[in-house]
Amino acid sequence: MRRNMNSGQSSNNLSLDSYKEENIKVLEKKKVGRKPLYTEWLTEEGLEQIKKWAENGLIGKQIAQNIGINHTTLYDWMNKFPELAEAIRNGRKVMDEQVESSLLKRAMGYQYEEETWGKNHDGEMTLEKRVVKLQAPDVTAQIFWLKNRQPERWKDKQEIMNEHIGTIEIKISADLEKWSQ
C-alpha cells in the first residue's frame, strides 16, 4: 500500500499486487523500436522469395542488396537462422543441377531442331523449313566434367608413389659418352 508521507495515513488507491500487475502490462506494451528487418524475411513468403533469387542465379551480395542489407549481414543471418541458409542452399541446388545437366549435354553432344521463318506473299510469318542439327561433343566440357567428377583419375598432376629402397645405379655406356662431347 502507498503511504502518504505528509499525513501519515495509508492510501488505499492501489494494492502492491495490482501495482505490479499494472507496471508489468505497461512494460509489455512498451516495446521500443522497430522489429528487426530479418523478421519479415523469415516468413514463409520471405524465404520463398530468397529461394527464388538463389534459383535465378543471384549470389549472396545480390540477394543482400535485394533485401536492403549488407552482404556481411546476410551471412550473419545465415549463421543465426538455419531456415534462411537452407532456403538459399536449396535455391542454389536447383541452379547447380541445371548447369550440371547443361554441361553433361554439351560434353556428350546433342540434337536440336532449327526453324527458319519468313514472310509469305501476304506478309504473314510462316515456317519455311525445319532442320535437325547435331551439336558435336565438346572436348573442353568433357575434360572439365572428368576433372571435377573423378579428380583422382583426371587431375593435371598425378602423384606417383616411389617405394624403392636402396641405391639406384646409373651406368653410362660408351656410345652415350661420345654423344655428350
In short:
This protein is an alpha+beta fold.
- DSSP strand tally: 4
Shape: flat
In terms of DSSP E residues, the strand content is: 5-15%
Structural class: alpha+beta
Point out poorly predicted stretches. Answer: 1-11
Helix content: 40-55%
Topology as a string of helices (H) and strands (E): EEHHHHHHEEHHH
**Biggest β-sheet, characterized?**
2 strands, antiparallel
Per DSSP, the total helix count is 9
- Across the major sheet, the strand order is 1-2
Give the terminus-to-terminus CA distance. Answer: 116 Å
Q: What is the arithmetic mean of pLDDT?
A: 82
Radius of gyration: 37 Å
What report would you give on this structure?
The chain has 181 residues and is of the alpha+beta class. Helix content is 54%, strand content 14%. The chain has nine helices and four strands, in the order ββααααααββααα. The protein has helices spanning 16-29, 38-41, 44-55, 60-67, 71-80, 82-108, 139-149, 151-154, 174-180, and strands at 2-3, 10-11, 110-119, 125-135. The strands form two sheets. It has a two-stranded antiparallel sheet with strand order 1-2. A two-stranded antiparallel ribbon has the order 3-4. A hairpin with a 6-residue loop joins β1 (2-3) and β2. α3 (44-55) runs parallel beside α6 (82-108) and α4 (60-67) packs across α5 (71-80). The termini are far apart. Mean pLDDT is 82; it is low at 1-11.
